[in-house]
Design brief:
This protein is about 55% helix and about 10% strand. It contains 15 helices and seven strands. The chain has a seven-stranded mixed sheet, with helices on both faces. Helix 1 packs antiparallel against helix 11, helix 10 crosses helix 13 and helix 11 packs across helix 14.
């Protein structure tokens, strides 16, 4: 009997202590809720609604412009002069401009042959084109392979130069800048740039160069990306949806209205005179391409986007590679905005409306507000209103505007409309990573200039003839954990269960699904799995 009574006393003591802690937490929550939490949440809701409206107006504006472009048939050939470059009996091949083709690469074992082969296969008079391979590889084996590939093409009569440096200062921008210093570049009029996984069609130069030769005000002709591995996994399909909107809408609108858009860093042709006038390549941010584009635009140069010219390339198919890419793409523009905002405002060569477009639309809305609002509103503020029912979000802000923005974003990839829900969930998860990178760029903290080359797999995952299929690699769970995503997932799961027991609006359906998406990404179960990735 004594033993029984002592065994029941301890649980009662623990129960009492637990009840006491719960009561204290409830008292603290009650004391801070009304005077602090509710007002802060109301302010957050108002700010998020304002940002949502800004995003919505921007999307509608671009949608209207695209419709007008289609209705009035404002094709590039109608806005700018285009004539095929004709043979001249007297001048011979010297009638054709000299073109430099730059291919920057870094340890590109899987794709170096594809890119070099495609560049060497470009149709253009052989004495009027120079292929320049800028190899920053640190792996000596890969370096040797790339050099041998260049020698192989040189033996076929291709004018190809293999260039290396003794450091990686400036990363891609540094390599491109160093490449432009070579003596043979002085004879070139234009430079086409292709990243290591890009494969231009043979007629690429015939379709782009004439715009530059006949329109001296044009500095850049940008082609569209065509994704060769978009069907590899769900993550690549979702990327295709986002990037198709970028090219179909954002780049087209910028080209048609202000003759300005961000250079995509590859699959484009620059007028070398414009590139030099703008100050050349700079490595002050991780978006050297956007930096050059903004500086050239401020000098009065115009850009042209050609949606009909497509260049094949590869989407990152591993979560690790995609996260590094998105960090660079989100951090870089925010950091560039911090560095160039006043320079844009003080510029006297461009119109006031173009300044407004660059600062407000191009930078502030698309590169900053979009990332911050997506995460803060849909993953923090809206769920928090479940726990704080005193704060109400109007239906137009929580349902109608987000739905319309999503539908407008989906027009670029009609074949993936059935994946819209997955796109929303994944974009919400990635918004945490993008918002963090954006803040790092704005504050210019330690990771602001972090540059990690996006891993390309090429044919690495395709089974080779006569070889056994590789065993499924084992992963240590610690290598794939993303703690911030797991923490947000836990928060959404808690709020979802709170809504089940105490809520009235059935918001838990979204909360549970979004929490699951955060957990899936948090544990790294997204994208393609490859050994040692």
């Amino acid at each position: 009997m004594d033993r029984l009574s002592s065994s029941t006393i301890l649980p009662d003591a623990f129960q009492g202590a637990r009840d006491d802690i719960s009561m204290q937490l409830e008292i603290i929550w009650a004391q801070i809720k009304a005077p602090l939490i509710v007002p802060l949440l109301r302010i957050s809701v108002v700010l998020c609604l304002i940002m949502s409206l800004m995003l919505f107006i921007e999307r509608v504006y671009m949608g209207i412009v695209i419709v007008l472009i289609k209705l009035f048939g404002r094709k590039p050939e109608k806005r700018y002069k285009w004539e095929a470059i004709k043979d001249d009996v007297e001048l011979g091949n010297s009638a054709y401009p000299m073109v430099l083709v730059q291919i920057p690469m870094y340890n590109e074992r899987e794709v170096y042959q594809l890119s070099i082969g495609a560049a060497c296969g470009l149709s253009w008079p052989s004495d009027r084109i120079i292929i320049q391979v800028l190899d920053d590889s640190t792996d000596s084996t890969i370096k040797d392979l790339v050099e041998l590939e260049c020698q192989r093409w040189a033996s076929k009569g291709i004018n190809i130069k293999y260039e290396i440096r003794d450091n990686r200062n400036g990363y891609k921008a540094g390599a491109l800048k160093e490449g432009m210093k070579r003596s043979y570049v002085k004879q070139c009029d234009y430079v086409a740039i292709f990243d290591a996984d890009f494969q231009p069609e043979p007629d690429f130069l015939w379709r782009t160069i004439p715009f530059l030769t006949h329109n001296p005000q044009l500095a850049l002709v940008q082609a569209r990306w065509k994704f060769v591995n978009s069907d590899e996994c769900l993550m690549t399909r979702i990327q295709e949806m986002s990037l198709d909107y970028h090219f179909t809408v954002e780049q087209e609108v910028g080209s048609s209205t202000y003759a300005f858009f961000g250079f995509n860093g590859t699959a484009g042709v620059w007028r070398i005179a414009a590139l030099n006038e703008a100050g050349g390549w700079k490595d002050r941010t991780t978006v050297e391409d956007m930096d050059l584009a903004v500086r050239a635009s401020l000098k009065g140069w115009k850009f042209l986007y050609l949606g009909g010219v497509q260049v094949k390339n590869e989407l990152p198919s591993t979560l690790k590679a995609y996260r590094y890419q998105q960090h660079r793409w989100s951090c870089g523009p925010a950091n560039l905005f911090r560095k160039m905002a006043m320079e844009i405002i003080r510029n006297k060569k461009v119109s006031l409306w173009k300044k407004v477009h660059v600062i407000y639309s191009f930078f502030f809305i698309r590169k900053i507000i979009a990332h911050i609002n997506t995460f803060v509103f849909y993953c923090i503020v809206l769920p928090a209103t479940v726990v704080v029912p005193e704060v109400v979000v109007p239906k137009w802000g929580s349902v109608y505007i987000p739905s319309l923005i999503t539908l407008l974003n989906a027009v670029g990839t009609p074949r993936s409309l059935h994946l819209l829900v997955f796109w929303i969930l994944f974009e919400n998860v990635m918004s945490l990573h993008r918002m963090k990178a954006t803040i790092i760029g704005l504050l210019e903290t330690n990771r602001a200039n972090e540059w990690i080359v996006t891993e390309k797999l090429g044919d690495a995952l395709k089974p080779k003839a006569g070889l056994k299929a590789p065993r499924k690699p084992r992963f240590r769970i610690g290598e794939r954990l993303h703690l911030l995503e797991l923490a947000v997932g836990a928060f959404l799961l808690y709020v979802g269960w709170y809504d089940v027991f105490f809520g009235k609006n059935h918001f838990f359906i979204f909360l549970f699904i979004q929490a699951a998406a955060f957990f899936i990404v948090g544990f790294g179960y997204v994208g393609t799995f490859v050994p040692n990735s």
